[in-house]
Amino acid sequence: xxxxxxxxxxxxxxxxxxxxxxxxxxxxxxxxxxxxxxxxxxxxxxxxxxxxxxxxxxxxxxxxxxxxxxxxxxxxxxxxxxxxxxxxxxxxxxxxxxxxxxxxxxxxxxxxxxxxxxxxxxxxxxxxxxxxxxxxxxxxxxxxxxxxxxxxxxxxxxxxxxxxxxxxxxxxxxxxxxxxxxxxxxxxxxxxxxxxxxxxxxxxxxxxxxxxxxxxxxxxxxxxxxxxxxxxxxxxxxxxxxxxxxxxxxxxxxxxxxxxxxxxxxxxxxxxxxxxxxxxxxxxxxxxxxxxxxxxxxxxxxxxxxxxxxxxxxxxxxxxxxxxxxxxxxxxxxxxxxxx
Length: 340
Prior knowledge:
Blueprint: H1 2-17, H2 27-56, E1 60-66, H3 72-86, H4 92-98, E2 104-106, E3 115-122, H5 129-134, E4 137-145, E5 147-149, E6 158-161, H6 169-176, E7 181-185, E8 194-195, E9 198-199, H7 200-205, E10 216-229, E11 232-239, H8 245-255, E12 260-270, E13 273-274, E14 279-280, H9 287-298, H10 316-338
Parallel strand pairs: 1-14, 3-12
Antiparallel strand pairs: 1-3, 2-3, 4-11, 4-12, 5-6, 7-10, 8-9, 10-11, 12-13
Helix pairs in contact: 1-2, 2-10
């Protein structure tokens, strides 16, 4: 129907321009075309208003698939921008006029070089993210023996190289037992931990001196060697909050009288959210897809964290406010066409 209306508008407006005799355009025809175009715009605006109301009413926790490259914060900004644009709310000024703010946050930083599950809270779901930070996580890590870097992964500068040719599959499995259970771990200097309000990784990149943090108690629920093809070894690790895989791989290298860094890191699970079943890829970052994901994921959360209404809880007052603004704008356009 919209396509047919557009075609009618085009033909009505184009006709006067092709009049070789220079006959003036028919005022009635122009007015009719403008009314049709205004009606089409009005329908689109009402649709955007409904999407905006739905977006602002979403509450809960879901998961997205973070690819390698962007930081967790950058990915969150990209997600927010896509949702606001879909709802016709692309600028901060728009939100300020409507006195509405889209609340969104993530429950556990993934390094920019890492990929996998990133848990996201939206609306009142942002208050649930602290439980995600302390919950269990699962990773697949590929370590590289023989090289140490300042970041403890492949993105950093090589700081040391040692032989690894005598290390066997059994040697690695033997040292893994030392890293299971409640252990003390020193966080890496390149990390999201903060000093005077700034991340240690940011201070390190600026060349500022950063003191190593003291070892802290962390938990490793399970760790297994999946594959060993020197110099690479693959680990499957399930751990608690605050645990650094990069530190683990580096410590394993030292225990083997060599050194090591993380070549690849994938978070396959965070809390009840898994990479294969729950993490939305970027092409599914839409309001409707997230609403469905919130409903699906609500059953995964403990009762004390679940909302009574896990689906989008649309406020009629909020929906009416968006619709009223949109319809008022459409009414002004229609009034303008009547003066032609």
